[in-house]
Automatic annotation (TrEMBL):
Annotated source species: Aquisalinus flavus
Any one GO MF annotation of this record: NAD binding
Encoding gene per record: serA
NCBIfam families (UniProt xref): PGDH
Protein name according to UniProt: D-3-phosphoglycerate dehydrogenase
The keyword NAD appears for this protein: yes
Keyword line: Amino-acid biosynthesis, NAD, Oxidoreductase, Serine biosynthesis
Amino acid sequence: MPKILISDKLSPTAVQIFRDRGLDVVYEPDLGKDKAALLEAIADADGLAVRSATKATADVIAAAPRLKVIGRAGIGVDNIDLDAATNAGVVVMNTPFGNAITTAEHAIAMMFAIARQIPQANASTHQGKWEKSAFMGTEVYGKTLGLIGCGNIGSIVASRALGLKMKVAAFDPYLTPDRAVELGVEKVDLDELLARADFITIHTPLTEQTKNILSKESLGKTKKGVRIINCARGGLVDEDALKEALDSGHVAAAALDVFATEPATEHPLFGHKNVVCTPHLGAATTEAQENVALQVAEQMADYLLTGAITNALNMPSVTAEEAPKLRPYLALAEDLGSFAGQLTETGVKAIEIIYAGSVSKLNRKPLTQAAIAAILKPMLQGVNIVNAPTIASERGIEITETVTEKARNFNATIQLKVTTERFTRTVTGTIFGGIPRVVEIKGVEMEATFSEHMLYVTNEDKPGFIGALGSTLGEHGINIATFNLGRGTAGGDAIALLAVDSEVTPDVLEAVRAIKHVKQAKALSF
Ligand SMILES: NC(=O)c1ccc[n+]([C@@H]2O[C@H](COP(=O)([O-])OP(=O)(O)OC[C@H]3O[C@@H](n4cnc5c(N)ncnc54)[C@H](O)[C@@H]3O)[C@@H](O)[C@H]2O)c1
Ligand SMILES: O=C(O)[C@H](O)COP(=O)(O)O
């Protein structure tokens, strides 16, 4: 039974869902803060469910040889080493919508907090002061909200701000003009946003491009008296530059939910009279935490139990409906790829995957990835279904998919055409009776299933060969399970593909290669 490790604080709903779906669950809400304990606990986990406290770094992933999926109950995956996970064949999924409304509401709450100095006025009133004239605020009505990043959260913030009768100017290079019109926001460039906004709120991920997007220079382009809100990620605002701008009075106020270093227990902005801080509470509502816990548990259980993939950052999606239809073809793509890969002895230059018949209408991306991974596996260490496209592209291997609606002689076939430095080889397979079968090799028709131990022989089609091969194997104590033959033309090139009951060792291969008319002999394993 697959085992799930939950290493951050998640709603009990997640634990219940995992259990209801028949998975083993270990719930250790504080484990993410204890690296040594995490490294130990993850050793036999198939799935890791986290929020942002657990750092799923390369060494954590390497300590989990069985790990297949990391589920982030939330949006940001900056605490997960995506490359390390991909290289280890671990699917990383998040819950992109589960806490978006909640986080957008927090940004709006923070905007009001700094517009009306509510936290400061609250503290003063609790102290028994009645400082009615100390907290003069500003209306948001009619003001311009500058939105940096207009994705899931940014667009919800925009709709709430429009409801408050603010004007919204959005900077997001990936926001299409049509979407901007649909949202009722004005698409602007960053400089225009900086120059016009009364409030600026950031809703981008932290990337090389967005790091310090509010830098000393860009803060210098803002209006005097601007108010800044960051409920996205620490590092988007240059904290030193922000302090300087607050101290000079150029920035009137700032509201920060996120910090460059978290947990932030000490910070130069703490105690600043115009700064409002919350401890990364953007997603902290009962509703959002229920949503993300439920979604992540269902997604992870679906993947481990059915192969369905939702909201993955490093794998194409596979719906619950598609997963059972794809399963036999995934096995076929892997078997054909493994067959082609084991026969390949020189560098692969190109791989074409030809889908014919009913399989051409399925979700082909995972099939292609499975085939590429299986082809490259004998040559490249560490390749897997998740990282196969990246590795192929790094090696300059050209990948193409061809689709034809009709498959000759069969309901559906997958053909792999592998071009190496020396030649192009094809192998075709189909599913019959639910089992993957090879039906063509190098243009020669045949019909064989895949077995743990196989022997592949190419030979001249001459009398006596079959008997000699059977005798040679018998002399070496190798029992033949199935014997499949195919040939191009009578007397021409022929192929024998045998399933045998034990491993074909190098001495057996040597004896087979010595048989008259044999051109090539290879031991294969599946
Ligand atoms: N404070 C919290 O607790 C909390 C909760 C949820 C999400 N978040 C964070 O909020 C942020 C936004 O989340 P989301 O779900 O809206 O993400 P999203 O992917 O839906 O939207 C991000 C938007 O940023 C835009 N973008 C990317 N690069 C940009 C650039 N260089 N300049 C301008 N725009 C750019 C993208 O085009 C996209 O539209 C993320 O950083 C996420 O981690 C924080
Ligand atoms: O990216 C997110 O979803 C938020 O930052 C929430 O993070 P949390 O789950 O640690 O509260």
